[in-house]
Write a structure and sequence with these properties.
Chain A: This is FAD-dependent oxidoreductase domain-containing protein 1. The complex is a heterodimer of chains A (486) and B (230). By secondary structure, chain A is of the alpha/beta class. Chain A has eleven helices and 17 strands. Classes of the chains: A alpha/beta (486), B alpha/beta (230).
Chain lengths: 486, 230
Amino acid sequence: MIRRVLPHGMGRGLLTRRPGTRRGGFSLDWDGKVSEIKKKIKSILPGRSCDLLQDTSHLPPEHSDVVIVGGGVLGLSVAYWLKKLESRRGAIRVLVVERDHTYSQASTGLSVGGICQQFSLPENIQLSLFSASFLRNVNEYLAVVDAPPLDLRFNPSGYLLLASEKDAAAMESDVKVQRQEGAKVSLMSPDQLRNKFPWINTEGVALASYGMEDEGWFDPWCLLQGLRRKVQSLGVLFCQGEVTRFVSSSQRMLTTDDKAVVLKRIHEVHVKMDRSLEYQPVECAIVINAAGAWSAQIAALAGIGEGPPGTLQGTKLPVEPRKRYVYVWHCPQGPGLETPLVADTSGAYFRREGLGSNYLGGRSPTEQEEPDPANLEVDHDFFQDKVWPHLALRVPAFETLKVQSAWAGYYDYNTFDQNGVVGPHPLVVNMYFATGFSGHGLQQAPGVGRAVAEMVLKGRFQTIDLSPFLFTRFYLGEKIQENNII
Amino acid sequence: MAAPWASLRLVAPVWNGRIRGIHRLGGAVAPEGNQKKKRTILQFLTNYFYDVEALRDYLLQREMYKVHEKNRFRDKEWIRPDKYGHFSQEFWNFCEVPVEAVDASDCDINYEGLDNLLRLKELQSLSLQRCSHVDDWCLSRLYPLADSLQELSLAGCPRVSERGLACLHHLQNLRRLDISDLPAVSNPGLTQILVEEMLPNCEVVGVDWAEGLKSGPEEQPQDTASPVPA
């Protein structure tokens, strides 16, 4: 009956759908919808089993404006700012898809939780400064009615970076940039260092930079829970599932130089439920890749990197998981309450933990020593051979210590230049990245979340300009190297 | 003190009629040029006449009184607001004067408000007792006062914890620190010991170091039953 109303010209062409990819354009699919309605009416009639009202509460919704892949601190930060910056309440429907709701392998919960502004790139410094003010006012940003205020347990003890002779000049110029951006950092000579921190052995140290304000460490788990709570109260939907497929459509277009380029647009995200084969296709407008250490897999699903190497189509997302160990030890004669997070010339770092003479720290392995990221097993020999000697050299009191425990976590390591990837992909036009921060993602999450939300909602970065962090730099080969990675 | 003394001039033209009379003895009241000559004449007269000497002393005392009026706070007198919370207009006269002590107890001062206190480069005593918005972040801002601050009181601040107390180690000139009654500090006794170790020249007041300790062997069996959190 309804079919007769359709103009004849539209015919069958529109009504057939190819499996997998759709050619762009608007497909009404009248036939399918009519048959569905007929089925529903038949099942309501008496005598039929009503199996249409199935419980789908565990499934994500069928439509969502933004799907955020990854529910760690970066994904939740993007969700928060999307909701904060939307033009009217309820304008954007956001879905956060997280594979593991216990966050057992997520980088956020396993992080050491430090925040510092001592970077060499102005953008990184601005991100950290904003994050510090976010954390300071966290109970105003993340307030939920009738919920207790968050206690982030922030230790404002600062970071102390030590530089040897060859790095001293770079450290000085970095501190100049940091001061220009508004970070309160002071430079100290070895003598001043010994005066201030008598437990340090300044052998091999030419210069030290000490952050005076807005630097320290906090409880990342508390921030994560606070963000979750707030974001749920703002109306963001959560789903525990894994993204297995993107259904996208391509369009062949010509650039201004008349070169053919294929632009892709993701239409559906297939979310597979935990421990089952059931999946739900979620129709979406924008996908945000905040999957941390596993971002490269998500990018590969969207077809990023499928092409001849050296072209834009063939440029993969260079983020891979790297395992890092953190050890907790007890040293009764160790440095006192004033200890900052000390990052040694060798790359070893440590900080105090609590009141009871416990310290935690570690060291980033060199490229040759990189452990296998297949699991999160801790290698205790690494501490014995590669971490302890450097610690004992720098702080003589650490010659006697006792390791209490240790854990391992992943860095979402950007092998290109160890800085984050933010913003849209040039070819897959509705996938935005917020990943690859190589160990400083937690401390930049509030700023990056805001930047991605601005990019999604307004089309450009408004507060902090993160254009150096776009994906295109991988193709163009423009490295923005960050020197101060711990 | 340079400014008050510079204004202290025995021949300043701020006289009433009667005194002018004296000056007519030594010549017309005129600015700088004749001053040296006038002073020697007055001096000469003072040496010869008891009256002139007494008069000169009286005039000197009046000048000194004016200076003391100007520097009244130097007698360690606190400038307080009246019952409506307003400060008197005379306070504006003390713009140039360095502030030695600030008592901000029970105040709603917060992180941004500390901007105003941190500009006081010669502050010696700061009291932030029972300030409900002073937390660890605020304490991390106090380091610019390190050269002058000798006394700090944080008693009764509900948001200050041992993590904020850790950044007081910049204040090496501190001689007296009051950290009593801090509800957010998890282990007051241990914190007191650690803060004392951190600031060796400072008298840390407020917590009895034995507070966290268990008393006596008779309680031991009870303790082994309930595990002490590590």
